[in-house]
Amino acid sequence: MSGSSSLLDRRVVHRAWVDSIPAHWDVVSLRWCAIRFSGGTPSKDNDDFWEGGDIPWLNSGAVNAGLIVEASDFITEAAYLSSSAKWVPKGALVIALAGQGKTKGMVAQLGFAATCNQSMAAIVPGQRLNSRYLYWWLVSNYSSIRNMAGGEARDGLNLEMIGSIPCLLPPLVDQSQIAAHLDRETAKIDTLIAKKRELIAK
Fold it and tell me: Distance between CA 110 and CA 152 in Å, rounded?
């Protein structure tokens, strides 16, 4: 990116996405540091596309899991070849472009390679991005991402919008440390919530 483009991105991020940005962190639009594509849904009218399938397929509701460890359904090889479904590698992210309630804008990480429907965008980070760090960056900016498509309105996100998301790029070592810290702290919170629920149940 040119110096003027970097400066513009930095101002946008500073104003709308974060309070301050360390001087040694880069700022780029997501399109410059990750591959984006949407999926597809094989015809539901063709039983041969769904019965006995072994290719994992995800619908947009799968993002509610945060870390996706099981498929929403399975499609056949014929279904894959006859639709716009594409393989999303393990560790990549998926974000809901549309969906009921709070689903739009939610992001999840894949615990296995899978295909997905057209209401989701796959995000495959490049060499400058740690997948887990990107996950937390997108999660922390959930409201800003939803607002790109009218917030609570029924309008959906699209690949162009996803590509325009400002992305902070610390050095990779820092990205790994940030992601690990957030994973640890979130795990502590989840444990406390589980204990409270157990006490309430008793």
Answer: 26
